[in-house]
Amino acid sequence: xxxxxxxxxxxxxxxxxxxxxxxxxxxxxxxxxxxxxxxxxxxxxxxxxxxxxxxxxxxxxxxxxxxxxxxxxxxxxxxxxxxxxxxxxxxxxxxxxxxxxxxxxxxxxxxxxxxxxxxxxxxxxxxxxxxxxxxxxxxxxxxxxxxxxxxxxxxxxxxxxxxxxxxxxxxxxxxxxxxxxxxxxxxxxxxxxxxxxxxxxxxxxxxxxxxxxxxxxxxxxxxxxxxx
Length: 228
Prior knowledge:
Pfam families: OGG. By secondary structure, this protein is mainly α. The chain has helices at about 5-10, 30-35, 55-60, 70-85, 85-100, 105-120, 120-125, 140-150, 165-175, 185-200, 210-220, and strands at about 25-30, 50-55.
């Protein structure tokens, strides 16, 4: 039985997208945690100089994610945004570069181009474990952020899939997806389909990343108690 009810999770009118709930969702960070983890100082996005970052800034950086350096900047910016002041996120990002010294930019940029041309599932399939462009130590929770920021069109497109979203999905649907993945392209497509349905059910015309944001908040509130 589901541990969450749709009407309790998606209650009331959807928040405004350009608000602190979503696009202005801001975190602070310490640049000194991140720079030592980057193999090249040029990998640090020039937009990240104020000590804070929000989704709008990462979207701006991700406009150039079809370029190899732009893809690296997008990964770094998305990682900083997701981790905030926690140094652990910087260490994990350093492991990605350490295990894939020459392929991070090319592989991510290729997946971004494929996503923009052929859709989210194509890009996801390239980067997922055993995919043609998979990157060691970069899980779905990491590369779906890159695809989301690089290819979401303001209403629909790729969405972030991480442990918090999965916790809420399992609780809403009664499913048993593994909290840490790996998730298949079929599961990712399933998630995007449900997000689109829930967005329309919440209020016609709602952007699907508002659903992702709400699922993430619900999953964080639940914690791991409701995972199966």
